């Protein structure tokens, strides 16, 4: 009898299905990994800037943008010991009372990740709820 070498069509189809399912799992896992990474990055940046703003307030008796008790427009993050991350856009707005601020962080790399906020009048914890 002759021995045939090679694979049958059924064996090839099974291998193709297995490879396709592994590739599909990898694509979905990578997408959720990017979103989780972006979320963590945004929260970390907010925490860093919030701590820097509180240190600035402690040493300068007010937040950046306050001159003589009145807010200066436009407010900036000048004077903080903070180096922005290239993957995050940070927005800082000082309230008119000069006693609280709003920070907004948006991911540059992952557009599907929503913006995160810190409203110092409410809490020092980052949240998805926009500042009031």
Structure description:
The chain has one helix spanning 9-60, and strands at residues 66-67, 70-71, 88-94, 101-107, 116-119. A hairpin with an 8-residue loop joins strand 4 (101-107) and strand 5 (116-119). The protein has a 3-stranded antiparallel sheet, with helices on one face. A two-stranded antiparallel sheet has the order 1-2. The termini are far apart. With 132 residues, the protein is an alpha+beta fold. It is built from 1 helix and 5 strands. The mean pLDDT is 83.
Please give the structural blueprint:
Elements (H helix, E strand, L loop, with lengths): L8 H52 L5 E2 L2 E2 L16 E7 L6 E7 L8 E4 L13
Antiparallel strand pairs: 1-2, 3-4, 4-5
The shape is rod-shaped
What strand order characterises the main sheet? 3-4-5
Q: How far is the first residue's CA from the last residue's CA?
A: 83 Å
| Beta-strand percentage range | 15-25%
What is the makeup of the main sheet? Answer: 3 strands, antiparallel
Radius of gyration: 25 Å
Written as H for each helix and E for each strand, in order along the chain, the element string is HEEEEE
Mean pLDDT: 83
Helical residue percent?
A: 25-40%
In short:
With 132 residues, this protein is α+β, with helices and mostly antiparallel strands.
Features:
3-stranded antiparallel β-sheet; alpha+beta; 5 strands; 132 residues; single chain; rod-shaped
């Amino acid at each position: 009898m002759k021995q045939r070498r090679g694979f049958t069509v059924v064996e090839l189809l099974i291998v193709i299905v297995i490879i396709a399912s592994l590739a599909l799992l990898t694509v979905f896992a990578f997408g959720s990994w990017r979103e989780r990474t972006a979320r963590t990055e945004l929260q970390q940046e907010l925490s860093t800037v919030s701590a820097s703003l509180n240190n600035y307030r402690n040493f300068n008796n007010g937040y950046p943008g306050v001159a003589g008790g009145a807010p200066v427009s436009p407010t900036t993050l000048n004077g903080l010991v903070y180096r922005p991350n290239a993957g995050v856009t940070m927005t800082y707005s000082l309230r008119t009372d000069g006693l609280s601020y709003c920070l907004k962080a948006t991911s540059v790399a992952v557009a599907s990740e929503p913006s995160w906020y810190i409203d110092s009048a409410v809490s020092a914890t980052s949240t998805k709820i926009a500042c009031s």
